[in-house]
Design a protein that fits this description.
The protein has about 200 residues and is of the alpha+beta class. The chain is built from 7 helices and 6 strands; from the N terminus they run ααααααβαβββββ. One of its GO terms (biological process) is DNA integration.
Length: about 200
């Protein structure tokens, strides 16, 4: 959905106006809820022409109305796993024919990106303090004398697929431990990589 003229002038006021708060680009994005590239575009436009109104366009008119664009964005926010094809089918039931490509463009204009679902465990203060103590303890470590090793797992029944992620509103799913999986272990050091070991169960310690 296109940025409203009011929001464009709000960006300029927050960032550049002498009586405004003189906020940074990052802080402005948090207020107007648009990405930093959009903020920079309208600030550059103001610097060049002092005009933030829509330029006269040539070619065919926009394929969707503002109301239809709001509906597209609402569907993607309400159902992050939804596809452009499904949105097109929903609109067609209401008598609105819009291509999947146009739907993707409208969502991209709103800052959305069709990307992988983010699975992120939450850290608590206890974890933060442990990491700080570890870093302080190893300040004098000679890392050329250290072997780094780690393991990863290929899990069955894990959450997969792409979702519509909007700025500052990424979709997060809670996952459970101990799924059926195959483990892989490997290591490396300053001289190169070690072997990769595959195993089904963790060895007993």
């Amino acid at each position: 959905m296109p940025l409203s003229v009011h929001t464009r002038y709000e960006i300029v006021f927050l960032s550049n106006h002498p009586k405004g708060p003189q906020q940074s680009h990052v802080d402005v994005t948090k207020v107007v809820h648009y990405n930093i590239s959009t903020v920079r575009y309208w600030l550059n436009r103001w610097t060049q022409s002092k005009d933030l109104t829509d330029s006269t366009r040539s070619g065919r008119p926009r394929a969707t109305t503002e109301k239809q664009e709001q509906r597209i964005i609402s569907l993607a926010k309400e159902q992050p796993f939804i596809t452009a094809q499904y949105i097109a089918n929903q609109l067609e039931r209401r008598g609105v024919v819009v291509s999947e490509r146009t739907i993707c463009r409208r969502l991209n204009e709103a800052g959305a990106r069709y990307s992988r679902l983010m699975s992120k465990p939450l850290l608590i203060e206890y974890h933060r303090q442990n990491r700080l103590r570890w870093a302080q303890h190893h300040k004098a470590t000679d890392w050329n004398q250290v072997i780094f090793s780690d393991e990863t797992a290929v899990r069955l029944n894990s959450v997969k697929g792409l979702v519509w992620n909007f700025p500052r509103n990424k979709k997060v799913v809670r996952t459970v431990k101990h799924l059926i999986k195959v483990n892989f272990w490997g290591c490396f050091l300053s001289k190169g990589f070690g072997r990769i070991i595959c195993f089904r169960e963790k060895p007993r310690r």
